[in-house]
Write a structure and sequence with these properties.
The protein is mostly helical. It contains 7 helices and no strands. It is rod-shaped, with a radius of gyration of 61 Å. It starts with a helix and ends with a helix.
Length: 257
């Protein structure tokens, strides 16, 4: 294979590839329908011309046939009058018209077959065009759906779902931490002086029972010494003596119950 043949093949291959890539189904199908419609217009024009020629031939045939019959009648008339020479001339005319009518009849028969064929082809082409339009619309719709799905797949493929799900997981963990912190703060903030007294009050029955057991054993419970506060000096200030005396009275009242 020569160098030019190889180059020619490469060029044709590249051109075919470019044409194949450039083909848009919607445009190609639309152009195909337009081409078929142009063929339909030309075929209709051909049918119209054929029908017109058929009618002209039919008119000429009818006229020649009529003339042939007329000259035959004239020949009979001349012969009945005894004019054989005139009758012979009339028969010549009748034969000429008859021969022309015969040729026109053959031509008319051929034209009739042609017109019938063209009409059948016209009906078939119209049916094909109608079918082609329906098929074109269907293929165009499928092509658009395929393009839309392709774009959707490209969009989905370009989304980094890993990062998105990781962000959701991080935010979920953060919300859980915030909920736990809020719950803990609620529990700590609710443990105030009311809760402390509630615990003391709930344990008063146990303290009363313990005092009764000590009294039955003959021992008088000694008053408990006040514990020093972690934030105050161990020496009780003089200003707290009234409080201590009131506490001692409360203890005696509790012991006498």
């Amino acid at each position: 294979m020569g160098l030019f043949d190889r180059l020619n093949r490469v060029v044709r291959a590249n051109l075919n590839d470019m044409v194949s890539k450039a083909e848009d189904p919607e445009k190609i199908l639309e152009q195909a329908v337009l081409d078929m419609q142009e063929d339909l217009v030309q075929l209709r024009q051909a049918v119209a011309r054929a029908i017109a020629e058929q009618r002209q031939t039919e008119q000429r045939y009818t006229k020649e046939q009529s003339e042939s019959v007329k000259w035959e009648q004239r020949a009979k008339l001349a012969l009945s009058k005894g004019d054989e020479s005139l009758a012979r001339e009339a028969l010549k005319r009748k034969k000429s018209y008859g021969e022309t009518a015969t040729v026109l009849k053959q031509q008319l028969d051929g034209q009739t077959v042609t017109v019938d064929t063209l009409r059948k082809n016209l009906i078939a082409l119209e049916s094909k065009i109608s079918e082609a339009k329906t098929k074109k619309n269907m293929l165009v719709a499928r092509s658009k759906a395929a393009k839309a799905n392709e774009e959707l797949q490209k969009t989905i493929g370009g989304i980094d779902t890993g990062n998105a799900m990781s962000a959701f997981e991080r935010m979920e963990e953060k919300v859980l931490q915030q909920e736990a912190k809020s719950q803990a703060l609620g529990e700590l903030g609710g443990f105030g002086i009311e809760q402390q007294f509630a615990q003391l009050e709930s344990g008063s029955d146990v303290e009363d029972e313990l005092a009764m057991l000590k009294a039955s054993l003959g021992g008088t419970p000694e008053p408990k010494a006040a514990l020093p506060s972690a934030t105050t000096p161990t020496k009780t200030p003089v200003s707290d003596s009234a409080v201590d005396a009131e506490l001692e009275d409360l203890r005696k009242q509790l012991d006498g119950l």
